Amino acid sequence: MPPRLSDDLKELIIQWYYVELKTMEEIRDLAHCSIGLVYNVICNYRDFGQVRKPTTSRAGRPCTLTDTYGIYTKKTCHANLSTESQMVLLDKIRFYAQDYPCSS
């Protein structure tokens, strides 16, 4: 399954369609996605006024990492580590966090 399109790209799809008056085929080529997805984004915007359908729920298990963990990690780094050590630790956290993506 291809990666999910970001809301920013979906907003661009709306701008291309309504402001720049591009066809769905042109938008498909610009966004590198299927024409069906372009159609669904435009329909969601037309029907609900937003690019994401509000009646659907998020798939998958809930994210276990929250903003609290990020704030705690940053405060701990700043309090206990040198700048170089902070960067190394945060790079390691980012690397391992890729295995556990959290999407909203």
Automatic annotation (TrEMBL):
Which InterPro entries would you find in this protein's record? Homeodomain-like_sf
Q: What is this protein called?
A: Paired domain-containing protein
* Organism whose genome encodes this protein: Hypholoma sublateritium (strain FD-334 SS-4)
Q: Taxonomic classification, please? A: Eukaryota, Fungi, Dikarya, Basidiomycota, Agaricomycotina
